[in-house]
């Protein structure tokens, strides 16, 4: 999925000359703090296909990776990525594959574009206006002219379409303060460990959903949406202890089927999505035990149990680490394609979860953008599912950059923070101290929650002497108003008329287009 067209806010493309296959001719002078977006067309001479990555090398800059693509023989592939460097230095840009000599790689049309932070933010804001908002105009039909004059339309958003959520753990059941802190802010969550198999069936045949059920009830009572995490985990380390001891594949298959039916049927109709097999690119427990098609077969069963919600892949190092091989955006995309192309799986509602556990350093925003492009290319919803970063002096600044980058990408439909108050044990991204006073990170999240929710508005109805002659009614119009997508209540009143008030619901979505004309007929 490509970003919508925006005004070019960068400093213009620089076309780079190539000195030899695998290396760019021109030594490029990069400026400290500059955001560099790069693209190139790549193909292989001999190999059928290989991952080719782009790398910087220079004095004080050693092997900084900026993205990768699966290159093919005889077919050009577009590599997109970028860099943010922490020093000003001349560098060489290389295109490399760990398994192929540089001479086997052909590259063309290498383009580099520099942005400063202000320009990058401006581009994000332009995209947000296009993908997160629509213009709305109200056309109101009144019985007579007196009811038009002075009438007002009040608009209040009940729930935004895009949700910034936060994980929760069992400690929320033990603390009224934690519960009040959470439900006063968030409308989206996932549970850290309470739905996982090793929690709900610690002993074979003895299921215990006490914690998960109580947290589910808490969420539903407070109108907090829940994304299920996780049906299964492909890492043997995180299986229930008794599962690890299973050596017979048929036995494992039976207990896996029991697990899936148990947890998915229990919460069917109550979740907005499921992580089906956590981290099944980095690990392969089920494939090793049940065969190479285990993932596809598990997703097939999951879809039969609950066909109405997205079924997610959930991986790490996908948007946060450009040098990643296993969990790269290309591999995640290919894994999802492999699952939905398995016989009988073509109608599965897929989803792509990028955990987004960032290291405590400057995030590579242009790489993150290109990674989201790749993840979104299948058309499935993309979520950032476990966003955090260890504490560091610039943690709040870096977190804001990451969250704004995600929010400004059209493929991203939700964000869940792996965070909470200090007493809940979230010691990386801590949002409140033990007295539930905001940390600086907490202030940031509150600011974004407010910014990404539409402020209530009151707009006048303008009388344009337009008569509906057939029905002898007067038509009033409102000015156009730009609204964030979401669910609204709309109330039409006239302060000079005591009993004049009508309320209705309104949904503003991408599907309604850039201008939505809402027609109302009032019989007052």
UniProtKB/TrEMBL annotation:
InterPro entries: Galactose-bd-like_sf, GH, GH10, GH10_dom. This is GH10 domain-containing protein. One of its GO terms (molecular function) is endo-1,4-beta-xylanase activity. Gene3D superfamilies: Galactose-binding domain-like, Glycosidases. One of its GO terms (biological process) is xylan catabolic process. Belongs to the glycosyl hydrolase 10 (cellulase F) family. Residues 149-448 form the GH10 domain. It comes from the Eukaryota. Keywords: Carbohydrate metabolism, Glycosidase, Hydrolase, Polysaccharide degradation, Xylan degradation.
């Amino acid at each position: 999925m490509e970003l919508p067209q925006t005004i070019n806010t960068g400093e213009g493309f620089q076309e780079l000359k190539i000195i030899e296959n695998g290396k760019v001719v021109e030594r490029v002078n990069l400026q400290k703090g500059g955001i560099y977006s790069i693209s190139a067309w790549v193909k292989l001479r001999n190999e059928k296909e290989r991952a080719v990555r782009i790398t910087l090398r220079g004095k004080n800059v050693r092997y900084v990776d900026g993205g990768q693509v699966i290159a093919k023989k005889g077919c050009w592939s577009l590599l997109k990525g970028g860099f943010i460097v922490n020093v000003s230095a001349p560098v060489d840009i290389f295109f490399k594959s760990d398994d192929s000599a540089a001479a086997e790689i052909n590259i063309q049309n290498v383009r580099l574009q520099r942005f400063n932070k202000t320009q990058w933010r401006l581009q994000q804001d332009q995209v947000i206006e296009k993908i997160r908002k629509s213009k709305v105009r109200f056309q109101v039909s009144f019985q007579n002219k007196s009811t038009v004059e002075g009438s007002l339309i009040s608009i209040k958003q009940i729930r935004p379409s895009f949700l910034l959520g936060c994980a929760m753990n069992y400690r929320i059941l033990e603390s009224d303060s934690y519960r009040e802190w959470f439900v006063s802010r968030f409308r989206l969550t996932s549970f850290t460990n309470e739905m996982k198999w090793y929690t709900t069936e610690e002993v074979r045949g003895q299921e215990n959903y006490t914690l998960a059920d109580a947290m589910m009830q808490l969420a539903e009572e407070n109108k907090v949406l829940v994304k299920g995490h996780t049906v299964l985990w492909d890492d043997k380390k995180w299986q229930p202890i008794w599962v690890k001891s299973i050596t017979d594949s048929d036995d494992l298959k039976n207990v896996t089927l029991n697990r899936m039916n148990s947890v998915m049927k229990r919460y069917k109709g109550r979740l907005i999505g499921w992580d089906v097999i956590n981290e099944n690119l980095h690990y392969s427990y089920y494939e090793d035990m049940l065969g190479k098609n285990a993932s596809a077969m598990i997703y097939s069963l999951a879809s039969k149990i609950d066909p109405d919600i997205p079924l997610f892949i959930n991986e790490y190092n996908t948007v946060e680490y450009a040098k990643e091989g296993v969990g790269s955006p290309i591999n995640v995309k290919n894994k999802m394609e492999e699952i939905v192309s398995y016989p009988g799986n073509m109608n599965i509602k897929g989803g792509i979860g990028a955990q987004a556990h960032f290291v405590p350093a400057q995030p590579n925003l242009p790489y993150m953008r290109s990674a989201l492009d790749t993840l979104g290319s299948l058309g499935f919803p993309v979520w950032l599912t476990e966003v955090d970063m260890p504490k560091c002096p610039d943690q709040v600044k870096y977190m804001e950059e990451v969250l704004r980058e995600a929010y400004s990408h059209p493929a991203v439909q939700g964000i869940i923070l792996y965070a909470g108050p200090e007493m809940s044990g979230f010691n990386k991204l801590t949002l409140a101290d033990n007295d539930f006073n905001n940390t600086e990170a907490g202030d940031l999240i509150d600011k974004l929650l407010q910014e990404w929710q539409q402020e209530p508005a009151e707009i006048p109805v303008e009388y344009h002497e337009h008569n509906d002659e057939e029905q002898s009614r007067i038509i009033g119009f409102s000015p156009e108003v730009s609204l964030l997508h979401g669910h609204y209540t709309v109330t039409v009143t006239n302060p000079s008329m005591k009993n004049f008030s009508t309320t209705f619901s309104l949904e503003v979505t991408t599907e309604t287009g850039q201008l939505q004309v809402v027609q109302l007929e009032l019989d007052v």
